[in-house]
Amino acid sequence: MDPLxxxxxxxxxxxxxxxxxxxxxxxxxxxxxxxDVCWGGRNCVFSCDEQRxxxxxxxxxxxxxxxxxxxxxxxxxxxxxxxxxxEELQRIRAHNPLDSFGISMLGPALLxxxxxxxxxxxxxxxxxxEIRWCQGYSEPNAGSDLAGLQTRAEDMGDHFLVNGQKVWTxxxxxxxxxxxxxxxxxxxPKHQGISFVLFDMQSPGVSTHPTRLISGASPFCETFFDxxxxxxxxxxxxxxxxxxxxxxxxxxxxxxxSRLFGVTGAGQVAPADIAVRRIGLEHGKxxxxxxxxxxxxxxxxxxxxxxxxxxxxxxARAGVGTGAASSMLKYYGTELNKRRQELLVSIHGSDAxxxxxxxxxxxxVARSWLRSKGNSIEGGTSEVQLNVIAKRILGLPG
Amino acid sequence: MSLAYNDDERMLLEAAQEFLRAESPVSALxxxxxxxxxxxxxxxxxxxxxxxxxxxxxxxxxxGGLGFSHMGAGILCxxxxxxxCASPFFATAVLGVTVLNHAASAAQKAALLPRVAAGECxxxxxxxxxxxxxxxxxxxxxxxxxxxxxxxxxxxxxLDAHVADTLIVVARTSGAAGEAHGISLFLVDAGAPGVVVExxxxxxxxxxxxxxxxxxxxxxxxxxxxxDGGFAPLERALDVARSCTAAELLGVATEAFERTLDYxxxxxxxxxxxxxxxxxxxxxxxxxxELELAxxxxxxxxxxxxxxDADLAAxxxxxxxxxTDTATLAVNEAVQMxxxxxxxxxxxxxxxxxRAAALRMLxxxxxxxxxxxxxLAGY
Lengths: 398, 379
Known about the structure:
Helix content of chain A is 42%, strand content 15%. Chain A has 11 helices and 10 strands. Chain A has helices at residues 3-18, 49-60, 79-91, 101-113, 116-127, 242-262, 271-279, 289-317, 326-348, 364-372, 382-393, and strands at 133-136, 152-155, 159-170, 177-183, 194-200, 206-211, 220-231, 235-236, 281-282, 285-286. In chain B, strand 6 (195-200) and strand 7 form a beta hairpin. The two termini of chain B are 29 Å apart. The mean pLDDT of chain B is 98. The interface between A and B is large, with 44 and 39 residues.
């Protein structure tokens, strides 16, 4: 048998035995809620014991980070095997055992730029979901112009002294550690004075303040650094070369965001299904013809987007990938989700306006719709992505 | 099932690219148009395609073809789209052969497919009866007689009919327009008495005709596939052909886009390369994203087409709708971004706009396929 086929059978077998029933979405109509998401970390509260067990079993095999080297706790799978694992997880509609910025963003950067000691120290706890990371990038005056950041790190001999403020730090109030861009050279051109450091959020001088969004939720924080001591061993890569790492990490962030928002995955209900339930059919067709057309176009674009994710993985495996596609995926995936949310509002009619109370699912439709407006801003705006595509992929000047 | 090309497909792609650029550039189409060529394509080019095995690409090896993948047919269509190659390749080697593969008896295959593979038989599918695609609205009538059948009706937008040797006619043997049951397929000699082919001059300077059947007498052996049950093999063949048309649209769109990018990189106005302007950069970047999605939809459909047991309908509609909309956008942006020169006949970009329009209508536009996609999904 083809080794990949036998890997698939073994994987299927193992998942059948080890993925608890409570960690699988029902075939249809089962909507993912916050309780289904496991972020791990020191203060992790599991929504049920099955969630803890599922994370532990997957982490033991390194399958929370399937392609990372076994040496650092990962699964050691090649891309083809990782695709099989993803397909088999999708087949049983398994919950993601661990949502983690450590896995999706910091890990790839550490694997590329970190020292052996840094990898050995930081990667295994990420795989096991023991340390939850947040990202210190944006600042009040450094949004799209991220490289204009002003948070300063002064060289104090054996450590840096960090002072400044970050904004839009996702879940900073719940995170254990931060990967943070700081300015270490104020005289150099802006891209050449930035360094990439890691530190514990419990360090003296770190404080966070949640930012309330138009959706009512507060997934982001303002984060303040007041004379925070950061040991120099926690500098990743070379001093003043942090922008390279920042950009590399951003490509992973964009891919993560595009996967999150671009496709209707397990635990999400397709707008068409909701529309059929709420609006009904006339002569076999959705009773609101204009809406029907828009829903179909969305579903088709989403299907084409899903095929694009698949194709880029296949091409990368065949060694013919462009490698510069993350901006395209980020742009298209988030714009798709905004369209999807607008359609869901139309499908729900005035019920979409409900903000509180069980009858309106505590405003789930309205809050999701409002939250989606940030998709095309966070992780680089759509306009920044289009700039990147124009210059780096299409080779347009300026 | 990988969406990346395998080694055979990559080799075919490289050969196609090289051959079509050298032997069939856009200027060749201009030449056929300006000389009002009677065939509307080059017989010499067609013979070369037969030598390379392209005419038999989808013909099984046992019948003298290559038995290549549908992905391969898509690759050829895409690159023919890039150079606007005029030939009966699509009508014969994709649409015609696929209908025969799915509907013909062993004897019919043995009689026809080797000749098609050798480039000695051009096929044309006589399907449409109205201006908008509707494969169920068939009223062309075939009635049984003592010694066979009689065919009566009119077909339009029949690609390559005036150069075809054999027509495949979609006709009704029972039931009413709109019903799948009662549709049957027939092989009709293009020179048979009562067959009248009127070549139509089309916007894309390519071959299409109106075909009238006036009491055309057919032998019992003319029936292709089951009586009254021709729609199922026809629909599968249409979906293969739609996927390949989508591939040609992708080629048209990609070529128009790349020519436009070249122009943006060199044209100067206001003392600047116009590609520096963000207003144009963002439009180009948006179009790039649309092209990438269209490519994925096309490759996805072609891969499904290579699995005989898989349902192709939704994938083919996705590919045709997505490629149609993307190509329409690409050629419109191409003319606009080229400015005045894009409006001139001397410049080639307008040829791409015209071809995209013809392919857009062929076997269902984006509205048709969006409606079909929703219907297939149960809403």
